Amino acid sequence: MNVKDLLSLKGKIALVTGGAGNYGKCIVEGLAEADATVITASRNIENSKKFAQKCIANGLTVHVMQVDQADHDSVMSLKQQIIKKFGRLDVFVNNAVSRPMSGYNDPIELFEESMRVNATGMFDILREMTGLITLAGGGSIINISSMMGVFGPDLTNYEGTDMGDMPPDYFFHRGGLINLTRYLARMLANKNIRVNCISPGGLFNNQPKRFVENYCKKVPVGRMANNDDIKGLVVFLASKASAYVNGENILMDGGMHA
Prior knowledge:
Elements: H1 3-7, E1 13-17, H2 22-33, E2 37-42, H3 45-57, E3 62-66, H4 72-85, E4 91-94, H5 108-135, E5 139-144, H6 168-187, E6 193-200, H7 209-216, H8 231-238, E7 249-252
Parallel strand pairs: 1-2, 1-4, 2-3, 4-5, 5-6, 6-7
Helix pairs in contact: 2-8, 4-5, 5-6
């Protein structure tokens, strides 16, 4: 098969949760550029609509739906909307994450809230969307983790800034998602569903100048990630081009941990 055909997502229905976020927008755009019909779902439907309108104006096929993954009824409503409108789901990019904690000493109730959204809620929507992909005869699940799920915090990145009090819940959930990927790759193989994970490094988002300088010194490619860096990787894992890739966690950090 021609490599362009291997990478094509024409005829595929793809769902991206957290599609209104920084990486979410890149992912939605990339999948749509590969000719998938993309559903962007998040709590903030107004931001999603604004972004979807820009995509549509560029000739891309993007639909907006609302979901709160911490609310089971909301998850089931999303599932029914997808069935009613499209009748199937081929690709699920599990990207949504809540950030209730801002540092180590935050109230323990915020850790509990993070568990409700990022553990229980995340697994709920993951399991329900897996059911849709199963009905379609198989497909691809892509979990979006972080290099912070693989390594502890490098506090030297924050020298000279007022940053650096790292939230423990984020490291906990991102690490767990990586191993959940391996579990699901085994459990869902007989359903023709591949499950992989991407762990990005820092996305440039107008961080303080000193932080960017500290960070980029440690990256062999000499910069932080940009909006295009994750696109090709997501399309690869969603498409037939990665048909023999399963249960992997791909560290996308510019060589920072090489």
